[in-house]
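quick one, 374 residues, struct below
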Amino acid sequence: MALIRAIIENRLEWSRELEDPLFDCLLCGACTANCFPAIPTSDLLIEARAAYQRNVGRKSIHRLLFDYLLPYPRRLHLAARAAALGKNTGVSRLAKALGLLRFLGRDFAQAEDIIEKIPTLPFRDRIRPGIYGGTGASLNIAYFVGCGMDIIQQDAGIASLNLLKAIGITVHVLDNCCCGLPAWSYGDLAAARNLATRNLSTFVNADVDLIVSDCASCAAFLKKYPRLFPETDPRHDTAIAMSAKIKDMVEVLNDAEDLTPAQPRPLKITYHDPCHASRGQALVSEPRKVLERVPGVTYVALPESDWCCGGAGSYALSHYHLSQKVLDRKMENLKKTQAQIVVTSCPACMIQLAYGIRKHGLDMKVRHISQIVC
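---
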């Protein structure tokens, strides 16, 4: 904040030396939640990052991701298959040993082990986009498939889809692109608007009652689409209409009180609050109510459950050492619960928590809330 003020007051000029302090922030929102005047630190940092991009320049890796991969699901799937081949055959380890991953960022080579394995087929190659019949009473639901669920957490995605089929008359698996949050987080506002524009067109064409995401980060950002466009932009009204239909999977599960597994499963579980759920959407009591309804489940409170795990989207890949300090604190709290399963509702959190469990040698698993209810 002091650096941003210095720039505004012309006491400091833009330079690459500002990159680390401006981009080290997790954007978790904890400072705002604990600040008496509630200074919107994350929003100010986004504006500062956008100004940094304008004055210092975009990185080539961001151009590749935000302009050529994330807007096009098919291209992203091809890139994911290549990454899966490298990861699962050990080629990426060889590349790391040879120093060939440096172009992806200074910490990427060290962070390569965070993701244990990449499935060879994305979710939407297993479950093709389209309309599927459900057994619900009234709702036509669209399922927004986030990049993390699509590429990494397909089992959780399938659990979510099965639950949505039980809730809705129809479930439309969307052929959406990235929600735009990664671009927004890096201050690439034009790329974020481009991604949002593509998704808004998809939403309008779907003509459904609800648009549901089982990624807390996607859901939180989709709800903020109106903020991306000025009121004079014709996309602003469309964004308002579509954002009103957005629901986090946790909200949908909380509303569907009769949706619980038929067979009790004796499980001792705890819950980690994703930042984009607890602070981004004020979803705190809802996931706990859902879990407490599941037969056989014993819920144990996690100390500092709403503290960031250090995953923060791609943060753990670009700021490995800082993210690990945050993660280690989370792991010490998880040990206190002696739970069998830590539940959450964000794929980035799932990846980061699973890495922490492996790293600390804990006898614990990570599951999406949909996998517990399904």
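The domain at 260-373 is CATH 3.40.50.1860 (Rossmann fold).
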